[in-house]
Amino acid sequence: HNNKQKTKLEDLSVDEFMLSGFDSHEEDACEDEESTQQKGKMKKPAPQKTSDKKQGKASEHKDQLSALKSNDPDFYEFLQQNDQKLLNFDDSDSLEDEDEDEEERMYHRLPSQLEEADDDEEEEEESEKKDAKKSKEATKVTEAMIENWRAGLTKEPTAKLIRDITQAFKAAVATTKGDSEELCRYTISDSAVFNSLVLFCIKDMHAALSKMLKLKAPEQGQKKLILPSSSPRWQKNQIDIKMYVAGVVQLLSSLTQATVIAAVLRHANQMVPYYLCLPKQCRHLLKSLIKHWSTGEETVRVLAFLALNKICRHKQEIYLNSVLKQMYIAYVKNCKFTSPNTLPMINFMQRTLAEMYSLDTQVSYQHAFIYIRQLAIHLRNAINLKKKETYQSVYNWQYVHCLYLWCRVLSTIYPSEVLEPLLYPLCQVIIGCIKLVPISRYYPLRLHCVRAITLLSANTKTYVPALPFLLEILQREDFNKKPGRMSIKPINFAVILKLSKTNLQEKAYKDGLVEQLYDLILEYFHTQACSIGFPELALPTIVQLKAFLKECKVANYCKQMRQLLEKIQENCSYITGRRQKAAFGVADVTAVAAWEKQVAVEGTPLTKYYSQWKKLREKEIQLEISGKERMEDLNLPEIKRKKAEEKKANKKEFKGLFESDNILPCSYGDQKKPSSSKGKTPKKMLSTELKVVAEGDEDMVEDLELSDQD
């Protein structure tokens, strides 16, 4: 109607327009119709009609003015100059865009308060309906119901029965999430009922679903999984199964008790074939499994890994790449702090992640290449920039554990033509890491790197020169120098990367260092014990050890190193004797390999000694770990204090015999203070030591500056 009116107005001359008047019959009819439409749309009473009439008149007036512009331009120009307000109408009165006009009118004619009141009323009505629906439908789950369901499943699992159990399970999961708003057919208010229901589902649902879908039991030795989607009944029951498996994942994410999580994980492992048919639920499960694998208790971690491995083995092309990436990130995130408690978990993650990488060497190569390159870039930046921040990006636990992980991955997957090219760059990164800051405070980090090289060298049959980094410590360190202070407990080199200046003055530091050098030199020679070139390989070490024994005056250190020297020389003699009888030349690679294999089977003096030593060493480490608390209970400083008091008493007794105070204390060190102050010195020293420990990072900067000058 509006369009008709518009065209009609445009056809009229000015005189005709004036005669026709502002309110034609047609106009009224049009507006009545429009107002009724608005009334139907907006559900508003009479005032809307009058407002529409006003709007119509205003629009009509605007049309008149536009006609005036074409018919009487002089008068229009006069209006423009003198009465601008008359011409500039509000845009909402325009009829050019009908849809916009309607929207505007809807917006402007409705009072906002009334609109809000309406919404509130609707919300109230809706919530009332919801509550009524909930109170009507929500059935409280009881122990008796669970028993009936159990009996039903044993007899014949039907689709309806499975649906009921799934709905009840959904309600149980909703209680753990705190989703009281989620609509469920059942409610669970009792914790005993919750436990019974979850236990019932974990025990019986897998078998019941298999029975309902008529899935065949896998034959013995059959590796391929039978997917439930192959069942003709799958489509019909898919929604309920989907709801159930999603519930299992949600339950995993909300549980906190390790034993319960372990039980649910065992069930999730059984349900893996169902997850493989439902990609979205499978992705959620994988995310939850990776979280448990990297942060859970020991049993939980193992079960999570088994499920991860199972999924990735059966759907490699879909999940393996993303799972490996997420697992590596989780590993890096969770090896930031290392202590005697976390170390076994970090080792577990290393071994299992290496197992995952062995599933597909092509994918593993891409991951290993990227991450080893990333480590190399960090190292390059540290070498080039020589700043505290860049050194710290390399000299931290995450970096060291990543180096160790890649050594383990390459060791586990060996022999592999695909991954072999990564051996050399990885070794270069480790050696670069050792050489970055070669000072005594970072000896623990150096020992960790040598251990990683030894692992790589032993398992990949690759010669990597690690001994120089150990022998260098023997040369540099002055083992004859008396320690500045006695220590209460030994230093655990396995869980530290950096020593404080206080540590360097302790007796425990040198004791531990000699022990570590003994262990690592022996371990490295064990990896090469059956090599035909062993005597030549051992020669530099024999020379260095003999030089050390000449210089060192500490009986304990000499005893350990002499024993090590004897074992190396014994092995040299054995290999020399064996190879003198050999009838082949050095160039005959095949014959050399066969000879080495034969020697390895028979064993050498060093390999036999190493196997005995390893068992004893592991027992010793276990005792050290378990005995730490007991060692801390021993109040050794008090014993020392008693001795000091005795000497003080002696001094008083024989005071007249000595003219000088300096004679007596000289045997206890270079301190020339009277012994009366000696009893108090340990306390003073402890407070200063704490300051030194607190200022550890500053010390590192000083050391780094010195090393740069070198």
TrEMBL record:
Chain intervals with Acidic residues compositional bias: 25-35, 90-104, 115-126, 695-710
Main location class: nucleus
Region of interest (Disordered), ranges: 1-138, 662-710
Record-level GO BP terms: negative regulation of transcription by RNA polymerase II; ribosomal large subunit biogenesis
Compartmental location: Nucleus
InterPro entries, per the entry: ARM-type_fold, Noc2
Key words of the record: Nucleus
This protein's record includes keyword Nucleotide-binding: no
GO molecular function: histone binding; transcription corepressor activity
GO cellular component terms given for this protein: Noc1p-Noc2p complex; Noc2p-Noc3p complex; nucleolus; nucleoplasm
Biased composition (Basic and acidic residues): 50-64, 127-138
Recorded family membership: Belongs to the NOC2 family.
Name used for this protein in its record: NOC2-like nucleolar associated transcriptional repressor
Organism encoding this protein: Cyprinus carpio (Common carp)
Taxonomic classification: Eukaryota, Metazoa, Chordata, Craniata, Vertebrata
